[in-house]
């Protein structure tokens, strides 16, 4: 957040309030005696968030999540924020980022931009369409000292979107909104490099219907990643029918959650299922569980090759934004015997999804499958 107090958004005592929520939430998620690895990671994350003064962001997301649940809205947050254990234990996300032995899908906090870059996570929340309207009035009541300035974004099919700024300015600078609309920004992160705290609210008509169905009011989305393999055949059939599923992918034999996660990431990322990777997958010289499909996979792959964790992050962060590897990074990778196809892959990618976001999409697909039988 900006250091300019005129435009900084901050919730009083946010760090302590967030920690209290997490201390209670970790027992809900992991029992009265959570594993030491869980408590250590939570302490580590809270320390970084407190140091960077990002607690208000997490606390606000937790407040919105709690309110959505109270009103029986299905929802999920997207992006970096869902990669944290804080989000899981505070109710922001149902994605467990811990290792598989703790029931999670293995997303280290290091893959977020907070750990090494100190960049605050953006808030992107998808819920029923009417929650867009409710969220504005809710935030206005909760933070009367701030102004809420909202900009509707272009609608697509079942989706309505709204970017909402929380600021103490009377109005935003003219170039602020122009930057939001640019399609030719070299670095997608550039649209977030401003001082005005904002939330992207995404209204989903399908999720809106669930609010009025007792099945979802009582149960939410019935899906657990750790026990998901039994549902994969049905999910894979659903995914293959989506418009953005390439024909070549439909021929793959998807049997596990990890494999489905790889396929869904390829579908939603940009220029991933191309070149040598596409050839290797189609010819079955590379198996789905061996491939790099999310930005987190790059981190794990390079870490497995023996690269320093900071170098793993720097390369992952460069690739996810569609920037070619630097000569120095190529040299480091050569020294660690990185597979030849990986260099071409890293240079062809234009955008790569985070693992947690893909996991949220799969949960959403599970909801869509369930809704076919429970919303009719």
TrEMBL record:
Bacterial DNA polymerase III alpha subunit NTPase domain mapped to chain residues: 17-111
Recorded hits in Pfam families, A to Z, give: DNA_pol3_alpha (PF07733)
- Show the GO MF annotations: 3'-5' exonuclease activity
Superkingdom classification of source = Bacteria
Q: Which GO terms describe its biological process?
A: DNA replication
InterPro entries given in the database record? DNA_pol3_alpha_NTPase_dom (IPR011708), DnaE2/DnaE/PolC (IPR004805)
Q: Which PANTHER family match?
A: DNA POLYMERASE III POLC-TYPE (PTHR32294:SF5), DNA POLYMERASE III SUBUNIT ALPHA (PTHR32294)
Q: What is this protein called?
A: DNA polymerase III alpha subunit
């Amino acid at each position: 957040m900006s250091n300019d107090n005129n435009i900084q958004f901050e919730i009083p005592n946010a760090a302590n309030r967030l920690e209290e929520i997490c201390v209670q939430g970790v027992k809900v998620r992991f029992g009265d005696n959570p594993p030491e690895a869980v408590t250590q990671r939570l302490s580590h994350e809270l320390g970084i968030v407190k140091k960077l003064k990002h607690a208000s962001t997490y606390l606000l997301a937790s407040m919105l999540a709690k309110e959505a649940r109270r009103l029986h809205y299905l929802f999920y947050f997207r992006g970096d924020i869902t990669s944290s254990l804080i989000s899981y234990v505070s109710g922001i996300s149902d994605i467990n980022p811990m290792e598989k032995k703790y029931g999670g899908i293995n997303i280290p906090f290091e893959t977020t931009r907070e750990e090494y870059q100190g960049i605050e996570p953006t808030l992107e929340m998808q819920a029923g369409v009417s929650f867009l309207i409710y969220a504005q009035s809710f935030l206005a009541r909760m933070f009367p000292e701030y102004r809420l300035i909202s900009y509707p974004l272009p609608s697509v099919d079942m989706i309505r979107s709204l970017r909402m700024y929380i600021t103490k300015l009377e109005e935003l600078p003219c170039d602020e909104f122009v930057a939001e609309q640019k399609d030719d920004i070299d670095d997608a992160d550039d649209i977030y490099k401003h001082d005005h705290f904002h939330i992207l609210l995404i209204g989903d008509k399908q999720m809106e219907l669930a609010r009025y169905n007792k099945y979802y009011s009582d149960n939410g989305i019935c899906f657990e990643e750790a026990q998901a393999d039994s549902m994969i055949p049905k999910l894979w059939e659903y995914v293959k029918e989506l418009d953005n599923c390439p024909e070549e992918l439909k021929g793959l034999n998807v049997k596990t959650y990890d494999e489905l996660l790889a396929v869904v990431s390829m579908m939603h990322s940009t220029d991933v299922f191309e070149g040598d990777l596409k050839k290797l997958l189609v010819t079955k010289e590379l198996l789905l569980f061996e491939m790099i499909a999310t930005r987190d996979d790059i981190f794990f792959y390079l870490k497995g090759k023996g690269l320093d964790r900071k170098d793993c992050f720097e390369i992952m962060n460069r690739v996810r934004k569609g920037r070619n590897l630097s000569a120095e990074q190529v040299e480091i990778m050569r020294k660690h015997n990185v597979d030849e196809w990986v260099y071409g892959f890293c240079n062809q990618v234009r955008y790569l999804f985070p693992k947690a976001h893909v996991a949220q999409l799969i949960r959403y697909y599970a909801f869509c499958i369930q809704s076919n039988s429970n919303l009719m």
